[in-house]
Structures are given as structure tokens and as C-alpha cells.
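Entry 12.
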Amino acid sequence: MSFLPQEIIRNKRDGTALSADEITFFVQGLTDGSVTEGQVAALAMAVFFRGMDEAEIVALTQAMTRSGDVLTWPEADAPILDKHSTGGIGDNVSLMLAPIVAACGGLVPMISGRGLGHTGGTLDKLDSIPGYKTQPDLATFRKVVAEAGCAIIGQTGDLAPADKRFYGIRDVTATVESVPLITASILSKKLAAGLSGLVLDVKTGTGAFMADPADAHRLAESLVTVAKGAGLPAAALITDMNEPLASAAGNAVEVQNAVDFLTGRHRDRRLEKVTIALVGEMLRLGGLAPSAEAGEEMARAALANGAAAERFQKMVSALGGPADFVENPEGHLPKAPFTRSVGSASTGYVEAIDTRAIGVAVVTLGGGRRRAEDTIDHAVGVTQLAAIGDEVGPDHPLALVHARDEEAFADAAHAIRRAYHIAETPVSANPLIVERLQ
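Predicted 3D structure (C-alpha cells):
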């Protein structure tokens, strides 16, 4: 069946629900280039203002999934599971979660992204590891998943190519925030990976993409509903991002933090709680645990007996990284030449944090991108970040900055001091897990 792109745009502009056939036609045009960038931008803007109903979003998700390869795992004797986070500061959960789930009997073919703006990207963190290939061929990807139980890589051109083009146009037309388009973009890539279960971590707060809790709920509900409508079992946690999740923000520093977590050398309390909760939901969805609570106990056991750290090392080695990386991360990760603590302007207790500003400070250091084509300095970042409720003062700094030089440190220190709000008396942090959706 043939349609005119401009008529599809007109229908959506006027508030008419699009048929599955219309959506499939338009997505095919996205893929083969027969729909122009102007037409894609016009449809994105029409959807931004008019929205889509559940059936439309399911149709869009499925059409974008079918625009390229859809992986299958015929030889797998375990559930194919994954997690997606909407991003934040100090959110290195994927680095621990994937090997924990693998150690508990799941297979995790995780397709991750790079950072843009104030949020970090999982692939940029993994690029800190010498030799690690974030863009392997499909055969290598399958092999690593089979051998290590998990592989964290970047999106290939063959998986949901329509989404890649659509996102690029949305990014420059101020339509990224559309819930229907976010939903279809996230889920099309996950469905293309051939999953049997997906858990969403939707952030809310000062460092989140969806800062308002109501917006975060709307997105989480859309993701779970549409995933199920497309045949993918899913659940979501809405989690707090009013302070960095880990005590580190950057690339190499977050990888070091992840290895410390896996080996038990150091585990940030909030990071541990979120990671374990997400793993519990994944193991429940995959039928590997009778409940999320039972899955959490399995996750703790996989950390305690070293199985999760072993899986992480297998993944790193299989994708080209050092064979002794978990044993000696400090010997391989890049280090910034200049480190200095950031003192607090006043004595007291951390009352609130502008978390986005911490992310911007990392970008200022060179650890993030202002533009998609920017080169990242993997060595720079921030560690020992004070959390809400922590005492700060002359003997208790706000953070330790890892910079290229004193000038870069000064700029980052200024941003960090402005991000912290200090009270005279102790305060409590916000609830970490705001809501669960199943």
C-alpha cells in the first residue's frame, strides 16, 4: 500500500491517529531515504504537539525494530535480559548489573549509547579500558554473550537504523522530549536485540532528563505499556537523581568505581541499592527468581562469591581488554595529571545538590561532549563526591577533582561549589526508589 508522506504528516498535525500501515510506510521511507529530512522533522513536531495513542506507539516501535536486523538467540538456554536507564550523573549501573545477571544465569546482550550533554555514556566509560572494542562485529558480539554471559557494546548500523536517523533529526528540531518518540526509540533497539525481558530505570530529579516526577511516571508507564504491547515483558523503577548515584562522575573514574563495587573494595550505598533492585526485577522477569526480593538475594550472593567480578573480567578480555583488568584496574586506566580537593565555602551538612551542575563540571573538564563530534578525555572527572546529609567543612571537602591542569580544576571547582547547598543541621536524602511499575 502506498501513501503520501505529506498526507501522513497532515493527519497527525490535525490530531488523527495514524494507522499501522501509515506508520510502517513512513518508517520504511526513513530507512531507504525516500522521506526527506524536512518531512521527518514535520512529523516529529506534529507528534510532539499531538501525541500518539498506545496503538500508534506500538506500531512505530515495531516498524523501527523491523527496519534492520532483529537478533535471535536459538542456541540460548537462558533468558535474554537487559536494562535501560534514562541517564544521570554517576550512573555506572550497567557495568555491574550485566555481569551480576550473567552470574545468576541470564544472558545480557546490552546495546548502550554515548554521552551527550550533562549525562555520561556507558560506551565512553568502557572506552577508558585499553583495547576494549565497543563496536565489534555481530559474530563477536554473539560469541562474547555466549562465553561471558554478557556483552556491552554500541548500536550497530544494522540494528534499528530508522531510529538512528529519526533521533538525529529530533535532536536538531527540539523534539527529543516527546514521550511517544522516546518510547519508540528506546524500545525499538531493545526489541531488535531479541530480548525476553527488559527493566527500565527512569530517573527523576535535578540530574535527570525527566526532572519532574510526573513526567518520569508518564515515561515509565509508556515504556512498560508499549513494551508489553509489542510482546516484550517489562517493568520499570522510577529512581531519584537529586544527587549523583555513585561517588564518582567521569569515565575512567566510574570504571574504577565499578570494579571496586564488583570486587567489594568499595560500594556506594545508593548505587548498590539501585543496582541490586534492578537485578532483582530482571531475574524475576526472566523466570530465574520467583520474586524480585529473591532475585536481590541472588545478586548479593553473586557479588559475595566473586562470580560477578569474574563475568566482568571475561567480558573485558573477550572484547579485547587486559586479561588482568579486574585484578589491576589502576595499572590500565588513564589518570589525570592534576588532582585537588574542592573545599566547601561553609561548614555544615549537604542539604541539596544541583546534580546537573556536577555533570556540567565533568563536561567542563573535558570528560563529556558539548557536540556529538567532540573528543572525550577519559582520564578526567570527579570522585569522593559528598552526598546529601554528609558533613562538609575544612576537614570534609565536597569532592576530589581529576583535571588536566590547574585552570581546568578552577573552573570545575567553581561549578561544584555552586552545585552544593549547605545547611546548619543534618538532613535526610530523598527516597531512592520512588515508584515501581510492572
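Annotation: The radius of gyration is 22 Å. The chain has a mean pLDDT of 93.
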